[in-house]
Specification:
Layout lengths: L15 E5 L3 E4 L14 E3 L4 H4 L3 H11 L6 E4 L5 E2 L1 H8 L4 E9 L2 E8 L5 H20 L9 E2 L5 E2 L1 H4 L3 E7 L4 H5 L1 H10 L6 E7 L3 H8 L7 E3 L3 H7 L4 E2 L1 E5 L5 E5 L2 H13 L4
Parallel strand pairs: 4-7, 10-11, 11-12
Antiparallel strand pairs: 1-2, 1-13, 3-6, 4-5, 6-7, 8-9, 10-14, 14-15
Amino acid sequence: MKNFYFLFLLGGALGLSFCSGDNAATTQQESPNATAPGTESNRQFTVNSAALQKDFTTWWNYTYYNVKLSQDFMGLDTDSMVIRKADFLSRLTSGRVVPFKIMVRDDVTYYRLYPINESQPSIRETIKQKAASEIEHYEKEGQLLPAYQFTDITGKTYSPASTKGKVVVLKFWYIGCVACVQEFPEVNRVVDRYKGREDILFVSLAFDDKEALVNFLQGHELKYATVPNMQDFLQFKLGISSYPTHILLDRAGKIVKVVDRIDELAPFLEKQALATSL
C-alpha cells in the first residue's frame, strides 16, 4: 500500500493529520491567497509563484485553503490555455508544475499551472502524490459502488436495494488513524445539519472488529452507523489507500465525489440533498 502524500512533516507548528493504511503523517494548513478585489463570486488573485514556493511550509499553508483539486474547477496550463480537469491533474503528476488559484468567476474557481521551484523537492513530490490520488478519486466518479451487503454494529444492514433512492455519505476509517478520529466532531456536525432527513444515510466503514469499535465509540461519539471488518473491501474492492476518505453516493447508487476532507464534500452533499428522489 502506498504511503500517503503528506510525508514531509511540519512538526508541532501545523496540526492536521492524515493516515495511510499503515502509518500517519502530521501536516497542515493555513492562509488565504494574496489580494482579492471584487465580489464574492467574481475575484481575481495576484499570485507570486516564487514567494509561495520559497519553502514547503509556506506553500502548504497556502495550498491547504486555496487549492482544492477534488472540487469542480477550470484548469489553465502554463500558457493560460483552458485544459480538461483530467489533463490538469495528469500534468501535476509530472512534478514540473504547481497549481495556484488565479480567479473565481461566477462561483467557478480557476487554477493555473506555474513552473515548480526545483529547489523544493518536498513540494514536487507532494504535488505528484496528491495529483495521483486525485486522479484515482476522479476516475471513480459516476461508477457504482462495488456490490455490497454491510451490517453495522447494531445489526442493521445496507445493500444497493435498501439504499436505492437515498443519498449515502460514506466515511472510511480505523481506530488507529489519528486524523480519522480528530474529524469526528466535524462529521457529526454534518449529520446534525441533515437531522430528520430519512433520505440521507451516514455510514462509516471501519477496519476494526465489532467489539473493538463498540468499546472505542463509547468514549468517542460518531453519529454515523458503523460497519466493522471492512479493511479488505476498502483496500481491494474500492482501492482506498488513505484515511480518512469520504465518498458521496447519489440516489441511484453512483459515486458523486471522493474526497479526503469532509468539508470538501459539503457542497456536493447539499446539491444531492436538494435533488428530487428517483
